[in-house]
What does this fold into?
Amino acid sequence: MVKINPDRLLSDLRTLRTFGTYKTGVHRPTYSDIDMQSRRWLVERMTDAGLTATIDGIGNVIGRSPAPGPKLLLGSHVETQPHGGWLDGAMGVIFAIEMARAVAEDPALQDCGVDAAAWADEEGHYMSFIGSRSFIGDVTEAEIDGVESKHDGTPLRDALASAGLAGLPRAVLEADRYLGFLEAHIEQGPTLESMAQKIGVVTSIVGTWQYEIIAEGIQNHAGTTAMSLRRDAGRALIKLAHAIDQHFPEIAAERSVWTVGGLRLEPGAPAIVPGLARMLFQFRDADPRQLARFAAAFDDLVAAVAADDPCSITAKQLSASTPSLMHPGFQDALSAAAEQHVPGLHQRMPSGAGHDAQILANVMPTGMMFIPSIGGISHHWSEDSDEADIVIGGQVLATAVGDILAKGRA
Amino acid sequence: MVKINPDRLLSDLRTLRTFGTYKTGVHRPTYSDIDMQSRRWLVERMTDAGLTATIDGIGNVIGRSPAPGPKLLLGSHVETQPHGGWLDGAMGVIFAIEMARAVAEDPALQDCGVDAAAWADEEGHYMSFIGSRSFIGDVTEAEIDGVESKHDGTPLRDALASAGLAGLPRAVLEADRYLGFLEAHIEQGPTLESMAQKIGVVTSIVGTWQYEIIAEGIQNHAGTTAMSLRRDAGRALIKLAHAIDQHFPEIAAERSVWTVGGLRLEPGAPAIVPGLARMLFQFRDADPRQLARFAAAFDDLVAAVAADDPCSITAKQLSASTPSLMHPGFQDALSAAAEQHVPGLHQRMPSGAGHDAQILANVMPTGMMFIPSIGGISHHWSEDSDEADIVIGGQVLATAVGDILAKGRA
It folds into this structure.
């Protein structure tokens, strides 16, 4: 059985936490100085683990095993949400390095290997999943030319140049190199903790459909403009947001979620009727038919509010990912490993969050495993998990990795 | 009859527009360099008009007439809204200076005089009406110590020091100096234009009650947090805003207005359930009983939404001004002057916007006069009025000023 070294794993995780510490979390935006320092440190750790490691032209850190036999690719992302948690992404990257070490140390798997990856910008400071998408050949140079920072509008090209990545080749998947891809992650929700379970075996990653809705009215004085004459862009989107919250529960599936994450009235002053309002809206589900049902209902609600409001309302779909099914064989391997180490304390579950695994699932068998999040908190510096649960997760993953590699010889 | 010099009046107005030109409007925040330049220029213009002019310790520019007989105080404000219009405030200040000149030039009124004032910060970059409130003795040094910029938090004390005003005395109303106060202003609404009228004689200035509402929930991941477990601060305030828009029309008076001017969800990202939301809400009416009715309804709605929502919701009243009645004799003088110059093309109307006149009305007879706003647009750089309407307004005001001064001898 592949055995992890818990102290080595936790020590690496704690060191990675020092790159951009913010309170008990981490602030490490993609391509920032501290992010690039963490990537260069990962190259060192991967090299120490016996991998040939490089940073590619989009910022992916990839360490390749010299093993001649069956290989798995493991990884996650290393940048964080703004003032985010210390484990979101980071844990999956350190797990990947630990798996490479543990497999290399296993006398029974000397012909097998694990490649480790830290994909760039899963969190979308510039563009979500651009690192893993680049690796599967889904990103053109023209697309990179058009991307800019969501925070300050810095062109991605400039950020890559500042990070020292301009002109470097982008790594691309080598056909038939891998049995598949595995990613470990914190759950980012309360399900495992609330059921006192230790491992979640992901069945699918939900699809996320995202919209920006803009209402254009007329900015005017809030004291002198009669109610009947107003074209209040804020009121129009409040009406839409409220209509969504009224109607969506009636058509939702059990695990559907929908969120108005942003709503801004411009200029946003107390004595000015907002002339412009912007809303960010998304919904998620593991079932493509449910996503289509939501999309149709959303379009109907926008049309109904627009028909009845003096403002012009336009909704633009920003993204629409399809749900990704995890490989049944990898699910079985993860469940069996969990049953071995924490019998009865694991379950299969969909992932409500997006992950690089959904990108890799387009091109190879892919599996994903969760460990519990304390209080279900995520995308916040207070995100945390018990170290004991991290170690359990590492050992379960190692067992599954060993199982898949051994079977891969056949 | 007191006669204005239209070219002189328009020339001064156009010059004032050059201090902080932004597109066809003006950006002249209180105490900024450009604002202080405009105040020093006003001192020159007032001095040229035969007034003894100074800038006081809060930034008020006040020019005093040497006339021994009856005197009126006229004025408005000179700073603008951010990227605001060229006439909002500025016109009333230049009118005041032109009235001082025109009265001084009238052989029949040689014993009479007009003092001119540009009150500081009516627009509330630091604190609305602080200049006129200071003049009526309503502002303590301790209050000044506690005020800071609404834009960047600069303490008012620092702004006053940077503007060269630290340590200067604040001008205070001299008892019995004036027959009263008059302010001319653009309407900032569409009523006069839509009825093809030239002059609005203000009957009262509405009271404005203003609130900040904060909802506190729990920030979490928008994909992994089940709908039933969410404490979505944005959803809570969207519910409240929608409830207001449903209920307020049922209890509103004919000219009541209410506005959600600001609504912010934090952190405002598409994939994060907002943990905090802030809303700015205000309502206005000329009738104190209507204001009380709205306040009670608002409190009830906040309580109802809070009772039914997992977020904590708190509403803080930021301000509550009482409606100000304009002096009946001044209304009559303005109406008679309007009837003389533009027969039938004037009406009495409340002011939906706040003005320095509501502050001065606390201590002396006060009147206010509007000219039409093109398209009713206000608090925006595209605000404008026809020059012909400006000239008509100036002449109507001059006639009323002459009438009031002449009667003031008795």
Notes: Residues 12 and 94 of chain B are 7 Å apart (CA to CA). Chain B touches chain A through 63 residues (CB under 8 Å). Chain B is about 35% helix and 25% strand.
